[in-house]
């Protein structure tokens, strides 16, 4: 069964600024990892059909929460669609032996101008069954909070 997870936030920055943070390697490494993780981009090709590979490392791997190893989640992301200052569509595949994490999850980042800022909504479709919905939505919200802090501080 297909599952959809969502999170949203208004960010005090222009859609162009937010869009640029979605397509900048150093920016993604800084804001995308949710609380309790750090990230490293291993390759980078920011164009439709291109993508990146991110290694997310748990700061406290107690209990082995990782999908790829006890301490890591590795995800290959392909850019399916890039619409400047409006939308980024990504196809994400986790590197994992457990079939509960198999399949391709589609993540769409929608950007809508809202007053002096941007309403950012991320929608994840076909979320692998092994990812708990509450945990995933909390992680998405954490990444959005990091994104807000990152772009609002840069202003």
Give the structure's gist in a few sentences.
The chain has helices spanning 15-22, 25-31, 133-153, and strands spanning 4-11, 37-45, 51-58, 72-83, 87-95, 105-114, 117-125. It is α+β, with helices and mostly antiparallel strands and 155 residues long. Residues 13-152 form the Activator of Hsp90 ATPase homologue 1/2-like C-terminal domain.
Account of the protein in words:
The protein is of the alpha+beta class. The chain has a domain at 4-34 and 78-153: Alpha-D-Glucose-1,6-Bisphosphate, Chain A, domain 4 (2-Layer Sandwich), CATH 3.30.530.20. It has helices at residues 15-22, 25-31, 133-153; strands spanning 4-11, 37-45, 51-58, 72-83, 87-95, 105-114, 117-125. It has a seven-stranded antiparallel sheet. The mean pLDDT is 95. It comes from Streptomyces glycanivorans.
């Amino acid at each position: 069964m297909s599952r959809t997870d969502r999170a949203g936030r208004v960010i005090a920055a222009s859609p162009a600024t937010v869009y640029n943070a979605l397509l900048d390697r150093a920016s993604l490494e800084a804001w995308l990892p949710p609380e309790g993780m750090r990230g490293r981009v291993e390759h980078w090709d920011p164009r439709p059909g291109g993508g990146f590979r991110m290694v997310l490392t748990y700061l406290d791997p107690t209990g082995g929460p990782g999908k790829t190893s006890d301490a890591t989640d590795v995800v290959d992301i392909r850019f399916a669609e890039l619409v400047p200052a409006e939308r980024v569509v990504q196809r994400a595949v986790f590197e994992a032996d457990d079939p509960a994490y198999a399949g391709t999850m589609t993540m769409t980042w929608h950007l809508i101008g809202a007053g002096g800022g941007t309403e950012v909504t991320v929608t994840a479709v076909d979320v692998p069954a092994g990812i708990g919905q509450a945990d995933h939505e909390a992680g998405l919200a954490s990444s959005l909070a990091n994104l807000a802090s990152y772009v609002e501080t840069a202003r």
